[in-house]
Write a structure and sequence with these properties.
Elements: E1 2-5, E2 8-21, H1 25-36, E3 41-44, H2 53-56, H3 71-80, H4 99-112, E4 116-118, E5 122-129, E6 132-140, E7 143-154, H5 160-164, E8 169-171, E9 185-188, H6 192-201, E10 217-220, H7 229-237, E11 249-253, E12 261-263, H8 277-301, E13 309-313, E14 323-325, H9 333-337, E15 345-349, E16 354-357, E17 361-364, E18 374-377, E19 389-391, H10 400-406, H11 409-429, H12 438-445
Parallel strand pairs: 2-3, 2-7, 3-4, 7-19
Antiparallel strand pairs: 1-2, 5-6, 6-7, 8-14, 9-12, 9-13, 10-11, 11-12, 15-18, 16-17
Helix pairs in contact: 1-4, 1-11, 3-4, 11-12
Length: 449
């Protein structure tokens, strides 16, 4: 079958009950739910492995979440345990994993229930008929092709499908700046116990993982009284680092990679608006240069890193925030403060408002206590413009500050499962996604576990 597209004809690769754009935490979860309920499902992803930022931007581990979750979260955790223990001994409620474990776990779960994948493919346009998406136009190794669908999920992170379909979006803070983007990397050959001992010899109060053999994390932010800052300043004085390299430094151990740590840095400090294509590329070059400086500094000056080496640099930017849709309901930061409850709630969040600001450094709200949470309403995941579209992940309908809380992996997984269940209900009843009642979805999802 072919369709007319502009002045050409395009092959329709296939038509599915549910088409998902983006195979990150939200998209993989949505696809897993749709496929295991018996509906033909396709995930389209520009990379060649599932997991999105968690796998391709090396965003490990999952930030802590004490609230209960939907079932997909635990299915994923159990699958990842085949590669290494996901819990630390301190009970922080972080889930520790390697990028490879996450990618393999999602692919195994999703394909195991019959889900199909289109890797190495980018959605570049849509065809809309009577307020419904009928086809997405995708750039593949074959060239442009069309893919048909009944229900569509935008889990792209950058609201790609929504923007192509004409959905109104927001972007950036009051000055138009996005959260700072990182370019993460991994370093091997580390004597982690020596490094742990060094960090605690400084009376560091950030790190809590004192037990030998446990997971470990450390951090340093210039001007924030971190105990490692004097050593970094010596790196600047020695001409190894430049002052911008001290903007943000953080690293984590990886459970199935002995002697390897994942680095949540460098901050790409000059990239204030990450929605500009050329500026993104310029920032990546800067990030590569910064990583070379940091690895040299670690090897020459940081205890425990004497024999270290660069393992890999992320092949995807660690974007915290870009575009968010304007849905039927816009979540505000007051929803965090008041621990909002909604009748159409389909997911929960409990991570603090965590802004890596382009102008104000770190901006944090007071963290919740264990057992606290806010609810995410289904109306923040659907739009007035498109009937057969549901949005999941960091690009749902929120303000800039509220987005800084909803964006973490556990919350995205739960939103994805809710989006997937919405497509199941729509396909079962031939109903419209943007008219579904979130309470119906919540009832289908069942109790939090």
């Amino acid at each position: 079958m072919k369709i007319h597209y502009g002045n050409r004809e395009l092959v329709v690769l296939k038509t599915y009950d549910t088409v998902i754009v983006g195979g990150g935490s939200a998209g993989s979860s949505a696809g897993y739910t749709s496929a295991k309920n018996g509906f033909s499902t396709l995930i389209i992803d520009k990379s060649i492995r599932l997991g999105g930022s968690a796998t391709n931007a090396l965003v490990t581990p999952m930030m802590r979440s004490f609230t209960y979750h939907h079932q997909n979260f635990y299915d994923l955790e159990n699958e990842m345990k085949k590669y290494g223990e996901t819990r630390d001994k301190q009970g922080t409620a972080q889930r520790w994993f390697s990028a490879e474990a996450m990618a393999d776990a999602w692919e195994s779960l999703y394909t195991g229930v019959g889900g199909e994948l289109l890797y190495d493919a980018s959605v570049c346009d849509v065809i809309i008929d009577n307020n419904k998406i009928t086809y997405v136009i995708v750039n593949t190794v074959e060239g442009l092709v069309a893919i048909g669908g009944k229900q569509f999920v935008d889990a792209s992170g950058d609201a790609v499908l929504s923007r192509l379909a004409g959905v109104k979006v927001l972007c950036g803070d009051e000055d138009g700046n996005n959260q700072i983007t990182s370019l993460r990397f991994e370093v091997g050959g580390i004597d982690i116990e020596k490094y742990r001992e060094y960090v605690f010899s400084l009376d560091d109060t950030y790190s809590i993982h004192r037990l030998k053999g446990d997971q470990f994390e450390s951090a340093m932010v210039a001007g924030k009284n971190f105990k490692m800052e004097p050593l970094f300043q010596k790196g600047v004085e020695a001409g190894i680092l430049i002052p911008q390299d001290l903007h943000y430094f953080q690293n984590f151990t990886i459970p199935d990679k002995a002697g390897v740590m994942s680095f949540n840095c460098p901050h790409l400090v000059e990239l204030k608006n990450n929605t500009y294509a050329l500026e993104r590329s310029k920032a990546i070059v800067y990030g590569h240069q910064c990583i070379r400086r940091l690895v040299r500094f670690l090897k020459e000056m940081m205890p425990g890193f004497e024999n270290c080496y660069l393992v890999q640099v992320a092949n995807m930017l660690g974007v915290r925030e870009s575009w968010q849709i304007v849905g039927k309901l816009l979540m505000h930061e007051e929803d965090y403060s008041r621990q909002a409850r909604y009748e159409d709630a389909v997911a929960r969040g409990d991570w603090y408002i965590d802004v890596h600001s382009a102008n104000k450094s770190l901006v944090h709200q007071i963290s919740y206590q264990e057992g606290d949470y806010y609810e995410i309403p289904y109306r923040a995941m659907i739009t007035d413009e498109i009937e057969n579209l549901v949005v999941a992940g960091r690009c749902i309908s929120t303000t800039f500050l509220m987005q800084a809380s909803v964006r973490i992996i556990p919350t995205c997984i739960d939103m994805g499962e809710a989006a997937g269940m919405a497509t199941v209900i729509a396909n079962q009843g031939n109903t419209v996604l943007n008219q579904l009642d979130g309470k119906t979805i919540a009832d289908k999802l069942g109790e939090y576990r």
